[in-house]
Amino acid sequence: MKSYKIAVIGGDGTGPEVVREGLKVMDAVSSQCGFKYEKTMFDFGGERYLRTKEVLPESAISDLKKFDAIFLGAIGHPDVKPGILEKGILLKLRFDLDQYINLRPVQLFDERFCPIKGKKPADVDFTVIRENSEGLYKGLGEFQNKGTPEEVAIQISYNTRKGVERCIRYAFEYTRKFGKRKQLLLCGKTNVLTFAFDLWERTFNEVGQEYPDVKKEYAHVDATTMWFVKNPEWFDVIVTDNMFGDIITDLGAMIQGGMGIAAGGNINPNGVSMFEPIGGSAPKYTGLNVINPLAAISAAGMLLKQIGETNAAEKIEKSVRTVVTTKMADLAAKKMGYSTTEVGDLVVRNL
Ligand code: IPM
Ligand code: MN
Known about the structure:
The protein is an alpha/beta fold. 40% of the residues lie in helices and 23% in strands. It has 2 domains: 1-108 and 259-351, 3-Layer(aba) Sandwich (Isopropylmalate Dehydrogenase); 125-255, 3-Layer(aba) Sandwich (Isopropylmalate Dehydrogenase), CATH 3.40.718.10. It has a 10-stranded mixed β-sheet with strand order 2-1-3-12-11-4-5-10-8-9, sandwiched between helices. Bound molecules: 3-isopropylmalic acid (IPM) and manganese (II) ion.
């Protein structure tokens, strides 16, 4: 029997609760599909930081490299200054494990969850490929004359040809394999960011020549957000930089039914990838058993797809779809109608 090693980081707030449901579903689907996995829990997050004053232990990266994949809940703690945990844990893992792709499917399961009037599941069904290792997230910049009236704060978007090219190449391959219309859109801002997106556009056009079967499109990021709401059906696969990808995928999450549904993968195609619900740690709901675990469950499905258990991944996706359409969508729009654990049980029952 095939066996995998999965690292689990529940993290902060409601992270551990939703991860528990993800694991419940993975347990069930693994026995149905005939594979095993061994999980190792890591306590990285705000609580550990407040206790030990250390964001990540020295050995974290080398330890995590020994796993087939990482399953992450959420990082962010109300008692820790913003930036410390995000940079020290989440971004550090993405960077040091060279997870240079952030893969974020935007998929509506039931029209009753879409805030845009008249849009059906077939209309909201696309994928954002966000560059995950460079751009404004690189953390380059400085203060000048800090705290004075002459203060200047500089934050640099760092884009390397190699970094941009590997991301764009991944996007073309992804579009060729999975794109519903074989259409890849570069989302940028060539009219203002004339260094960064000049490089992006040139690379997109050059690499694109190797993919004559893929239809190439371009849109500025501001126009992209407009089209997300006006004509989401026009999108297939989108490739963009780290910052724009961060922003447009929150909008994407909203049109697919909310943060409780949206999952993502931080992917190193040649190494260890990490999967997470894209919503935050929702501290005020911690321990209340009210947070929607479907995003975490879908993230578990993406994880299984990445390690090669496609059948199991499809079963999870189908079950999530069934639970949303038959159990959740006919309830009042705002409320989930079930507890966190009940939703996990429903997904298991419908596998
Ligand atoms: C995300 C999050 C992170 C990001 C934060 C928590 C650092 O918003 O995964 O989209 O900006 O990438
Ligand atoms: Mn974000």
